[in-house]
Specification:
Blueprint (H helix, E strand, L loop, with lengths): L1 H33 L3 E5 L2 H8 L28 E5 L4 E5 L5 E8 L2 E6 L13 E5 L2 E8 L4 E9 L4 E5 L12 E4 L4 E6 L2 E3 L4 E3 L3 E6 L4 E8 L1 H4 L7 E7 L4 E6 L3 E6 L4 E5 L2 H8 L7 E7 L2 E6 L8 E4 L5 E3 L5 E3 H41 L10 H15 L6 H8 L6 H23 L7 E4 L7 E4 L2 H9 L1
Antiparallel strand pairs: 1-5, 2-3, 3-4, 4-5, 6-7, 7-8, 8-9, 10-11, 11-14, 12-13, 14-15, 15-24, 16-17, 17-18, 18-19, 19-23, 20-21, 21-22, 25-26
Helix pairs in contact: 6-9
Length: 474
């Protein structure tokens, strides 16, 4: 048996080494077959126009749609393509991977594209916000296998790999609801509610941050205005698009709801031009805006069913929107002032509450003192005590018992709090029993407690006939 076992172990080890060797060769061949090889994009009118434009552009972001330009085979065939454009270069990224493609040149209506990276890893940066900062491709946040991250990554042209820039905070973010203020090197981010799959923790806050790329530091600006939180996540986000000419982010939701988020000036606008709304929403069945960008006061767009990816445009300006009366977000000073106001009111309310309790306590103490005033003799019952003894005794003679409520009524405690009732009732009964024991030199209680037959959780009170006679005839 031992010999057979060793043979199986040896056989298993050989098989695993062979599989590892085959897998290494497959990965290497796959890498060589894709890295650095030219791809052709033929007859793509929109992409040709974008390549010829010398201005930096920001492209539309779809929350749940796949946009494809490059024909990737195999595993990466269904990955969405992301466009990144500065003054001189046009890049195509495979969303959720480290792959970077660059449009090298153009001949006629044909674009020649090369893959310039050598990365192998993927699955950590889906839906990341990608942009160019100081001629460097940047990637911020995104979804991974287990979590939504807030990492700031950059592509190294020298190493053909991705690396990290450290930040003071890690704010989970994706490409929606993000605005890049290029002149100031600042990115405005709307952090939406999320569930951390790794820990199953919920974060239901709507927070607006500003990321200073020069200092690589986040600053919390405030909470998204409650008037706008209802758009997320009930209204499924359809598209968002940075409008450089308007220095704002165009936010498009289902149901014809289109807003302009001005993060810099903390303002909100709503679309009032029906022509733009019709351009975005009114189309044939299954035909939607596949690609969009704004340049020089025009909204350029390409529809999904355009065979040649035709690029159309419509003018867009601030006059197409109406400014709303409330701000985009409540800045820290505003809600800090609000907190101070609420805190002040709570402090005043607490003071009034404490004063009333103190006054009420004094009244209760006065009543309590009236009940506990000694007549100078440890052995003599006070009139209020004799009255209670007589009532319990008379009820006991009939074979019945006295309830807690009956005791409270006899002592005039019905309008007191439960706490005060219990305190005075207990002290009075204990004092009566103490006087009885001292006076008649006995260990028996005058007023005895018995369990209620209806509810064993409660007590009732009785006085035995012989003890009652002693107490009342003394």
């Amino acid at each position: 048996m031992i010999c057979i076992y060793h043979k199986w172990v040896y056989f298993y080890t050989i098989v695993m080494k062979i599989m590892k060797w085959i897998l290494t060769i497959v990965v290497a061949l796959f890498s060589l077959s894709t890295n650095g090889q030219d791809s052709l994009v033929i007859g793509h009118q929109a992409l040709n126009k974008i390549y010829e434009t010398k201005d930096p552009l920001f492209f539309s972001v779809h929350a749940n749609r796949t946009y494809k330009i490059l024909n990737q085979e195999g595993f990466f065939g269904n990955y969405s393509n992301v466009l990144i454009k500065n003054h001189n270069n046009l890049f195509i990224r495979l969303d959720g991977t480290g792959r970077v493609y660059k449009v090298k040149n153009k001949s006629g209506d044909t674009l020649f594209v090369d893959r310039i990276d050598s990365t192998q890893f993927f699955g950590y940066n889906g839906a990341a916000y990608e942009f160019i900062y100081k001629d460097t491709i940047m990637s911020l946040g995104g979804f991974g296998y287990w979590r939504k991250n807030g990492q700031l990554r950059y592509y190294s042209y020298q190493n053909h790999e991705w690396d990290l820039f450290p930040l003071n905070l890690e704010i989970p973010v994706t490409k929606e609801s993000t605005y890049f203020d290029v002149p100031q090197n600042e990115i405005y981010i709307l952090k939406l509610p999320l569930i951390d799959i790794a820990t199953n923790r919920k974060d239901e806050s709507f927070l607006v941050y500003k990321l200073d790329l020069t200092k690589r530091e986040y600053q919390l600006l405030g909470d998204l205005n409650p008037e706008l939180t209802k758009l997320f996540p009930v209204g499924v986000q359809y598209m968002s698009l940075q409008l450089p000419s308007l220095k704002s982010e165009l936010m498009i939701f289902e149901g014809g709801k289109i807003y302009l988020f001005d993060y810099i000036n903390n303002e909100v606008y709503q679309l009032i031009n029906p022509a733009i709304e019709k351009t975005i929403f009114a189309s044939s069945v299954g035909d939607y805006i596949d690609l969009a960008f704004e340049n020089d006061g025009k909204l350029f767009y390409s529809k999904s069913k355009s065979s040649a990816n035709k690029l159309d445009s419509i003018p867009i300006s601030i006059n197409d929107f109406s400014k709303l009366k409330y701000p985009l977000y409540l800045v820290k000073s505003q809600y800090n002032s609000l907190y101070f106001l609420i805190g002040g009111l709570l402090f005043i309310g607490l003071g009034i509450f404490v004063f009333r309790r103190w006054k009420k306590s004094n009244n209760n103490n006065l009543n309590h003192q009236q009940l506990t005033i000694s007549d100078g003799s440890e052995y003599h019952f006070k009139p209020i005590e004799l009255d209670l003894i007589d009532k319990i005794y008379q009820v006991s003679l009939t074979g019945k018992s006295y309830s807690v409520e009956d005791v409270n009524n006899s002592l005039g405690l019905t309008k007191k709090t439960l706490e005060i009732q219990k305190k005075i009732r207990t002290e009075t009964l204990n004092r009566i029993n103490h006087r009885f024991k001292m006076k008649f030199e006995t260990d028996e209680d005058l007023i005895e407690r018995i369990r209620s037959e209806e509810d064993r959780r409660f007590y009732r009170y009785i006085i035995r006939e012989e003890n009652g006679k002693k107490a009342l005839n003394s």
